[in-house]
Amino acid sequence: DLPARVRIHEVGPRDGLQNEKRAVPTEVKADFIRRLADAGLTTIEATSFVHPKWVPQLADAEKLFPLVADLPVELPVLVPNERGLERALALGARRIAVFASATESFAKANLNRTVDEALGMFDPVVARAKDRKVHVRGYVSMCFGDPWEGAVPIHQVVRVCKALMDMGCDELSLGDTIGVATPGHVLDLLSELNEEGVPTSALGVHFHDTYGQALANTLAALQHGVTTVDASAGGLGGCPYAKSATGNLATEDLVWMLHGLGIDTGVDLDRLTATSVWMAAHLDRPSPSRTVRALSHK
Ligand code: HMG
Ligand code: MG
User: Is the CB of 267 under 6 A from ligand 1?
Assistant: First the structure.
């Protein structure tokens, strides 16, 4: 059975832009977020309060967030540690996301920590956020494969997921950071998480589309009962600390499939496509999304 409605967690302004080499002006980012909201997206990951040297593109978080804070949508932000949480809370953020890794290699590359040191860094962040009734998402990266370590054993992923749930995260997002997952692997992980006590209602999926599997993986997850799906407008993106990571599943490709299945998203696909075409012009390269290309060349 497929769900009647899917909540799209739009990550374009964060995951989509974080890897752009040329600085995108803050005002363009704010316009991007406004247009996404206008296209009907209701959860838009706006930016990250990480170390500015680690992700220079998002160093303008303090300038950007107030420009969009009045929009009637949820604006989650990434926060790696207490310093990041302070910065986010000072601006009134109501949703944060911590980001763990299922592998040691990526924990080191992305957070300069072991997997357990990173979990230890998140623990006080989640506790303080929950005290303030701030919603907390816990990302788990490298849930399926890792560029340094290869295939990632499911028990390793489950351990990190359970630790984040025990900490008090409201939801998890299962990241296929380098886009190597296939549908059977997705179903195996979801089933194992359920058996270990993590309910499907707490799980979102976050597929990068490197191998063209993101939509197939999403459909498998939907059939399992998942109703939160991450996507990036126009298929922008990639992680600066994981080689071979390409853009996320394009939001347009996702919406095309969901609407075709009769699943409600609240998204106006034409407006969304126009936004991605507009953004592609700013970034000076065409969107990799097949749906954006098809709809903009009609
Ligand atoms: P570190 O170098 O170990 O930092 O980096 P530290 O804790 O040793 O602190 C060093 C200095 O940085 C200190 O300043 C801190 O105050 C400062 P000093 O005392 O030396 O003057 N500092 C900060 N400044 C501003 N904001 C902060 C902050 N924290 C420390 N938040 C750290 C550790 C976690 C900070 C660093 O590794 C980092 O920022 N990493 C972020 C990497 C990142 O954003 N990656 C992309 C997002 S993850 C992703 O894309 C995957 C995902 O999409 C899911 C998927 O696809 O799998 C989510
Ligand atoms: Mg990602």
Answer: no
